[in-house]
Amino acid sequence: GLADIGITGLAVMGSNLARNFARHGYTVALHNRTKAKTDALMEEHGEEGMFVPAATAEEFVASLARPRRLMIMVKAGGPTDAVIEEFAPLLEPGDMIIDGGNAHFEDTRRRERELREKGIHFVGAGISGGEEGALNGPSIMPGGSKESAAALGPMLEAISAKAKDGAPCTTHIGPDGAGHFVKMVHNGIEYADMQLIAEAYHLLRAVAGYEPREIAEIFRTWNTGRLDSYLIEITAEVLAHTDAETGRPFVDVVADMAEQKGTGRWTVQIALDLGVPVSGIAEAVFARALSGHADLRAASRHLAGPDAGTERASGAGPDAAAFADQVEQALYASKIVSYTQGFHQIQAGSDTYGWNIDLGRIAAIWRGGCIIRAAFLDRITAAYDARSDLPSLLSDQRFAEEIGAAQDDWRAVVVAAVRHGVPVPGFSAALAYYDALRADRLPAALTQGQRDFFGAHTYRRTDRDGVFHTLWGGDRTEVSAG
Ligand code: NBP
Predict the structure, then answer these.
(1) Exposed (0-12), middle (13-18) or buried (19+): which is 291, by Cβ within 10 Å?
(2) Whose alpha carbon is nearest atom 2 of ligand 1?
(3) Angle 318-353/425-438 helices, nearest 10 degrees?
(4) Bigger pLDDT: 261 vs 85
């Protein structure tokens, strides 16, 4: 029979998604630019379900039931445009193209607009969870028309991850680029989560004196509490691992230069355009960049640090254990700030592009199938359920109480880090954000004064309406600049 969906691009992600659809009873048409990949998939997994392999684009399109659902899983960027150009002429109004690659949301907006003119629904779907997720259930963030959401929703729900309460980890995010935008911010939050965990590890090692396998145990304990998450779980696994060749902790034989594929960077670039302070994500992107500057680091090793006399808690002693508890508080508080910033960016994107995104639903569909899955996300959903127009996650009473209870320890940890010369850009940027938001008055008033002095950029007053300028070069009287 005709296929329910077709997938073109059968590298690891496309192949695994095809198998996932087939396992859920769908008939899946298969196509790849290089036919050898299609043949290999049929050979290795053809028995798992109903597949319709196609050698040519025409054959592929002809094998799809109408309205056609054609999913593209090729390398993001130019290849995606090339595939759209190849297939769009073969489709009819009402058909759907789903791009499951890691597209930039601006590309998705352009493609959606161009295809809409031809009557074709373009669905930019962010897919999280890597290879394993694609096969066993990813978190899926589709954007596009309401019609396409209705036609695709049940299929995406079937193959998606399920949260602990059984809810599918997918929802229609909003029009055009909304899905890829949310996927991008998800990746940015992932960067921030990873950086905060790395800082916690660094402090436990350099300040408290714990060994990696002891830190693994601490993370395992944390994973039974409010920090319960996939990233904390795998952190314990990585830290407990011993290098077979040298017998040393694995973490000590890995080169300390973190790489990135670019979605974290996009998050920060777009945040700059939207004027949203995502300092935690930005510090995480910069920390990876800094780690990669080997020459710069080598040239800086001689720079002075804190006095050698700085006391160090001895590993596993009571001081170290108390410090570990403080680090847990600092990590949790900083994590609340990261999510506050990330959700602010999603809200800003939604407002700017008219997407009308339901923020509580976003947290709910990240509970399974993706790298940032965590018990914590239920709390975010609860916060938005309690108040859908929540100005910020920090305005939620429970989060405010928790961060308030953590703040003394959080400050103590940042102080200890500074005293010991341990860089904690994530913890300290999060704390600075928290303190800036709480402040009655910010020194931005002085900044405005300086701007008015050198550039006549004007200012507002706290005590009456209007726009003003002081004649700094003259007698310094104030004039109305309205
Ligand atoms: P790749 O990103 O490695 O892309 C390989 C596929 O793209 C092959 O099927 C290749 O065909 C096809 N392709 C290329 Br390259 N140029 C093409 C062109 N001009 N015309 C037609 N096909 C072309 O595959 P992947 O790692 O499976 O990822 C697929 C998408 O999913 C990407 O956008 C990726 O960013 C995204 N993603 C990946 C992950 C992950 O964990 N890997 C996670 C989430 C999202 P060929 O066989 O003929 O060379």
Answers:
(1) middle
(2) 75
(3) 60
(4) 85
Name the residue among 120, 254, 264, 296 with its Cα closest to residue 185.
264
**Residues in Cβ contact with 361 at an 8 Å cutoff, skipping those fewer than 6 apart:** 171, 381
**Residue linked to tokens 């507002």:** 460
pLDDT in tens, 214-237: 999 999 999 999 999 999 999 999
Specify the residue with its C-alpha closest to ligand 1, atom 3: 75
The two beta strands, 69-72 and 96-99, are parallel
Active-site positions read: 183, 190
Share of the chain above pLDDT 90, in %: 96
Q: Looking at the CA of residue 33, tell me the nearest atom of ligand 1.
A: 48
Query: What is the mean pLDDT of the segment spanning 382-396?
Result: 94
Using most ligand atoms within 8 A of CB, pick from 20, 74, 81, 140 the residue to mutate for ligand 1. 74
The pLDDT tens digits of the residues spanning 257-316 come to 999 888 899 999 999 999 999 999 999 999 999 999 999 999 999 999 997 555 555 555
What sections of 207-292 are H helices per DSSP? 212-222, 230-240, 250-253, 263-274, 279-292
* Any ligand 1 atom below 6 A from CB of 32: yes
Place of tokens 């899905």: 179
Q: Give the mean pLDDT of 23-27.
A: 98
For residue 294, the surrounding DSSP H or E stretch is helix 294-298
> What is the residue whose two structure tokens read 């109305």?
480
- Residue-by-residue DSSP string for 163-176: -TTS-BSB---BST
pLDDT value of position 309:
53
Q: Is the CB of 319 under 6 A from ligand 1?
A: no
Amino acid at 21: F
Side-chain half-sphere exposure of 122, counting CA atoms within 13 A: 28
